[in-house]
Amino acid sequence: MILQIDNLNKTFVADGGRVTALADVSLQVGRGEVVAINGRSGCGKTTLLLTAGGLLPPDTGTVGLDGRDLYALPPEQRAMERARNIGFVFQQFHLLPYLNVLENVLVPTIADAAARKYEQAETLSNVRVETSTKTEPEANEASRQGTDHSGNHDSHTRQRALALLRRFDLIERIGHRPSQLSTGEKQRVALVRALINRPKFLFADEPTGNLDDDNAAEVMRYLTDFAADGGGVLLVSHDRRTAVHADQSYQMQQGRLLT
């Protein structure tokens, strides 16, 4: 299983009372699977998505992504895990209004680049410690092996962004800002942005809620294609059209999953 959720519980305090958002929620998503959770507003869907995606710690329970317990990681490592392995598609898109389409798509690569630099620094630090007792030629060779000499990360990332925008039929819109896009185009830009770092898993919050039937079917096709390539998808929605495309679907009521 790429995503393993066990006994999640989350309670919020509101207006002097306690609101149970998640109640003993357990769920599995395998590679190649799309899992849909449907339910009314306020039933806990978005809380589950944020918790499963490493953004909102649960009161109790565990979230395992590709074998790693997200909430056992320190916050900075959990942020790195999100940057490298998770893509989010939000209901309101959250595109930056002052950036064009291409720039919006490239925003997540900033966090990914920072994660890579952090890992390289850790690797080099370990290499220096390990080579402190070696001869000078051996130490120099070990240091070279720990250094990234590609120098083409930005160029490769830009080419990947352009390829994805072409695939999503957005290549003619790369210079446009979000205010110049249709709702369907904004959703496709949000999907490209979620895919840019080659994530293992996608979390989607109401990915079709604002779309007509044709655009909704297109977005679901992209999500199922991602799963078919070996990824996993967890989506939450009040839109029952999503269940048709899912490998598994659940209803959610008052923080509980119903099969």
Give a structural overview.
The protein has a single domain, classed as P-loop containing nucleotide triphosphate hydrolases (Rossmann fold). The chain is built from nine helices and ten strands. The chain has helices at 45-52, 75-85, 101-106, 108-130, 136-145, 153-167, 183-195, 213-228, 241-244; strands at residues 3-14, 17-29, 34-38, 60-65, 68-69, 86-89, 201-205, 232-237, 248-253, 256-258. The strands form two sheets. The chain has a six-stranded mixed sheet with strand order 6-7-8-3-9-10, with helices on both faces. The longest helix has 23 residues, at 108-130. The protein is globular, with a radius of gyration of 21 Å. 34% of the residues are buried.
